[in-house]
Amino acid sequence: MDSSDFRIIYLFTDLLAPLAAGYLLYQRGYISDALISRILRLNVIVIYTILALMSCWTLPISWDLALIPLYGILIVLVPGLIGWAFFIRKYHNPLDRGAYLANAMMSNITTLGGVCAFILYGEQGFAYAQIMGIFQTVMLVLAVFPMAQYYYLQHKNHGAGGKIRMDIRGILLSWNQLSILGMAAGLTLNALGIARPPAVGTAFEGLIHFGAWFGMLPVGALVHLRRARRYAPYTLDLFALRFLILPAFMMAVSYPLVGDPVLLGAILVFSVTPGAINSVTAAKLYHLNVDYTISGFLTTSIAFFFVVYPALFFLLR
């Protein structure tokens, strides 16, 4: 039996289980907002930095790596542009429009995409998710936050624009981006030809489960089902955008150029990854319709977990 056949169980034990646990624990008052923040910071600063180092240490060095920044940018900008051109007209309130675009542009590549790529391709798939996640963060700062601020100012000024301010340095140069150093260290060891000890691979297998739980449990705590339920019917166009249009586009621009079949498959997985909690963060920061972003995250995640990824798993394995 292929190892990926066994790892499919991680979809439930490492992704769905912590998501449900986080929701139940928070609703019953067992975990607080302060604890959620500490768990998120521990995961981002410590666990994912170590995992990035471990996985990039054995990543095949090729020209395909140079294409990842391009695909990391496209996977954010393309759904935003398509959503703005074809789907946004049904939303009349600027706060709803900004929330829709935030949902369309951001996907959960680093945590959810990383585990799903690991299920199929092992450490190499996980490493690609971490590298692409860097450029998604860059686009969060350079594209999603300004867009969110624009629609908030449009709402505040009754249709007129306003001056957009961004603290780019404060967001990119923070402890939350420490995993970049982990990737750089892993790639450096790789390039120097230093063999990774077998014990590191064993530790990776265990640590990735902690990373998944610490990443998804806080996400479950942020979900508010009652408030998000009313917007569920309005999120259906995200299905066509995220599960059909975006993967078709990403395959069209990557298949002729990418020689590594693992990277090609990983790009397909990342292109169908559901909405990210970062869209909720953007909506909260700029006072958009938070309930819509949560609803979009929930509906696309349900479709991904129970239909899209299982089908993709049997197609790609």
List the defining traits of the structure above.
single chain, Na+/H+ antiporter like fold, 317 residues, globular, mainly alpha, 15 helices
Describe what this molecule looks like in 3D.
The protein has a single domain, classed as Na+/H+ antiporter like fold (Up-down Bundle). It is built from 15 helices and no strands. It is an all-alpha fold. The model has no long low-confidence stretch (mean pLDDT 85). The N and C termini lie close together (11 Å). The longest helix is centred in the middle third of the chain and has 34 residues.
- Count structural domains: 1
Radius of gyration: 19 Å
Number of strands: 0
Q: Give the DSSP E fraction (strand runs of 2 or more residues).
A: under 5%
- What is the CATH first-level class name? Mainly Alpha
CATH architecture: Up-down Bundle
Average pLDDT over all residues? 85
How far the N terminus sits from the C terminus, by CA atoms, comes to 11 Å
* Low-confidence segments: none
Can you tell me the overall shape?
globular
Q: How large is the count of helical segments?
A: 15
Oligomer: single chain
As a percent range, the share of helical residues equals: over 70%
The class by helix and strand makeup works out as mainly alpha
N-to-C series of helices and strands:
HHHHHHHHHHHHHHH
CATH topology: Na+/H+ antiporter like fold
Short account of what is shown:
With 317 residues, this protein is mainly alpha-helical. Helices cover 76% and strands 0% of the residues.
Draw up the topology in text.
Blueprint (H helix, E strand, L loop, with lengths): L2 H5 L2 H18 L5 H25 L10 H20 L6 H12 L3 H13 L1 H34 L11 H5 L6 H13 L6 H24 L3 H5 L6 H19 L6 H11 L5 H9 L4 H27 L1
Helix pairs in contact: 2-6, 2-10, 3-7, 3-9, 3-10, 4-5, 4-7, 4-12, 5-7, 5-14, 5-15, 6-7, 6-13, 7-13, 7-14, 12-13, 12-15, 14-15
